[in-house]
Amino acid sequence: MNSPPENTLPGAGGFSKLAYLVVDDFENFRISMRHMLRSCGADNIELVANARSAVQYCTYNHVDVVLCDYNLGEGRNGQHILEELRYKKLLKRSSLFLMVTSETSREIVMGAREYQPDAYLTKPINRAMLEKRLGSLISQRNALLPINREIDRENYPEATSLCLEALTRLPRYKTWLMKTLGELYFLLGDLSHSIKIYDEVLAKRELSWASFGRCKVLLANQRYDDAVESLQRLIEKHPDYMEAYDLLAEGLERQNRPGQAQRVLEQAINHSPNALRRQKHLAELAESNQDMEKAADAWRHTVSLGMHSIHDSPKHYLALANTLCDLSEGTTASEGQALAGEALKTLATMEKRFSGQEALELRSQIIQCRVHAGQENTKDADATLEQIRTKLENTSQVGLDTELDYAKTLFRLNHAGEAKELLAELAEKYSSDPVALRKIDNLLDEPVGFRTKIKARRLNREGIAAFESGNLKEARLIFDKALKIIPDHPALNLNQVQVLMKEHENTTETGNLMELCQHHLDRLADLPEQHGQYRRYLALQRKLKGQRQ
Questions:
Q1: What is the mean pLDDT of residues 105-112?
Q2: Burial bucket for residue 203 (CB in 10 Å: 0-12, 13-18, 19+)
Q3: CA–CA gap between residue 414 and residue 407 (Å, rounded)
Q4: Stated pTM of the model
Q5: Which CATH number fits domain 11-142: 2.40.110.10, 3.40.50.720, 3.40.50.2300, 3.50.50.60?
């Protein structure tokens, strides 16, 4: 392939060989863009007014250049179009996407940058500006076309060879070639060559993409400390490099520092609040950290951003409703009522938006039931529970998450026996799935609202600290308080057994202590063999038996 001269634009011939799509809700602007493109030599030009038409056209036609306005009126904007085209792989790597905008707000600009358009064109646009900016991009496109074709085909070894060959032939594009080489080696799993590329670039000039690429390799090599420190420095120097925040949060999670990971994502969202997947990640992290207020806020943003996004999902609505349900439970004052009302409204919106899906309607009713119970609305809670039972009798397959949610609701409505039977069946059914078993164990251990759960966990930590410091009397009193909150909690009962056994070793009055130990062990007589505490339970049973002999 003969490349165009390095210091010239492609000319009319270069423009004429490409297919163009202009997306703008104003007809006069679309027509004006067509005139300017034709004057540059373009011929194959399609004009559309909205996101639906743009995506549909790209689904059935190859497009080399998309010129898309950011603001398209009501509904989806240019960011949503780029997001969907990338997700559905309707744009080749060699295709160009130019965002046309008159928007200047930081929030909108940062949001659009998240999906990496090839360039921005700021209105008003004239022919000279268009020819210069687009011509330069077309020259680069033509020069790098063979490499991008192989990447589209996922033929990474050939793409790597072409990049290496082009380094001497196309020095003008060395930065692009080095960046692409680092990414290709990473995709091939050749981490040593990948980091070598990034180190070579950084030795000559500190570029943020090279620092970021190097951190990805460090993380893949499980060098978590080095990756986290490097990412923190990168963010300090380049606070708008949003991908670094996401990677830093991932690194902190791998270091088992979820609280710090959450704060990093909060910092990122202050810079760029319109990234759906980052809001979702923050919501999940906040939930795992039991920061339910922050989780609810992040889920609200996730749902809102999903209204026009390809990443919209009913799971976001269910997660928001679940979080609001937890926050409203046991709080019947105006604040609790408002949260409960928002949960019910969220579920109603989901059912309308994703109508006709029986599984979703069932999940919705399960959460509704718990919302009513949390507001002491017993009549509606019982009526909804009967509807759920009827549906479950007529449903052949129910997913694990739905069954766990149902068990949680049964616990909340004081049907603990039925809930435990269901969890025992699930433990047997998913006996070879460690992730599922962990979820089952967690619910079996703490079948209570999150506020109660947090209190019991705090008491558990205090009891362990008292035990480890040798203050057995205090430890025993603390575990008693925790067990009044969650009487059947396996770890709490076993912790109390260990305290009592330690007391037994230090006193001659042993009869009552042994009876108390047996009492706590008897509470766990139905503990499934698959439970994470089962081996500990058996060990303490044997130890108690030995001490009694």
A1: 63
A2: exposed
A3: 11
A4: 0.85
A5: 3.40.50.2300
